[in-house]
């Protein structure tokens, strides 16, 4: 079962990458059986915390989102996560030959590398059940750093390249990830201006 890889990413990532390399799962299966499931954690937890728990900043009153607003933003977040993982996986495959990776007939390795590297970010979604901004930011920062390390660690194994090449390859992919993040933020601003922004209520 693909979900078993989530635990392995934290206990023995090198062995897990070797197993993933040998599996050659299709991108569709990786998406349906792994990404689509784990990516739900953050949006669902965010919906529960923002619509039902609420949060405070300093000594201000409790703030919540309306249930409809929280649902809309959670669905959009889920979609953006799926698109982000696909875009990163596509970039991995697109740049593969440039960095000497072995060409695959089925573009499974790039999607798999992107999906499993994002595991810490998926699981960090549980932190949203405790809606304290500084705590959430810290958890996601640690998760992003570990995810970046997982990608660097997995590149030589999954893509079949030298470790020296993985440094430049990984740097290029982190740049792509930042572009995806900025694009997501810009897209959020555009969508909010279209009337699908957060609607706050007092707790």
Automatic annotation (TrEMBL):
Its main location: membrane. It is found in: Membrane. Residues 7-183 form the Yip1 domain. This is Membrane protein. The chain crosses the membrane at residues 31-55, 75-96, 108-128, 134-155, 167-192. Keywords: Membrane, Transmembrane, Transmembrane helix. The keyword rRNA processing does not apply. It holds the Pfam family Yip1. The keyword Transmembrane applies. GO terms for cellular component: membrane. It is a multi-pass membrane protein.
């Amino acid at each position: 079962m693909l979900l078993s890889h989530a635990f392995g990413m934290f206990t023995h990532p090198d062995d897990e990458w070797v197993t993933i390399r040998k599996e050659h799962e299709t991108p569709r299966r990786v998406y349906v059986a792994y990404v689509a499931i784990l990516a739900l954690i953050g949006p669902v937890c965010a919906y529960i915390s923002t619509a039902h728990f609420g949060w405070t900043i300093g000594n201000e009153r409790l703030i919540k989102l309306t249930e409809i607003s929280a649902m809309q933003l959670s669905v959009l977040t889920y979609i953006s996560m799926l698109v982000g993982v696909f875009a990163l996986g596509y970039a991995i495959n697109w740049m593969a030959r440039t960095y000497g990776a072995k060409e695959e007939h089925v573009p499974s390795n790039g999607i798999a590398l992107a999906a499993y590297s994002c595991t810490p970010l998926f699981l960090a979604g549980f932190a949203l059940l405790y809606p304290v901004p500084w705590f959430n930011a810290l958890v996601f920062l640690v998760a992003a750093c570990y995810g970046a390390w997982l990608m660097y660690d997995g590149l030589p194994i999954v893509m079949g390249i030298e470790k020296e090449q993985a440094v430049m390859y990984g740097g290029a992919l982190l740049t792509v990830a930042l572009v995806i993040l900025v694009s997501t933020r810009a897209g959020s601003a555009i969508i909010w201006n279209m009337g699908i922004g957060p609607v706050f209520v007092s707790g």
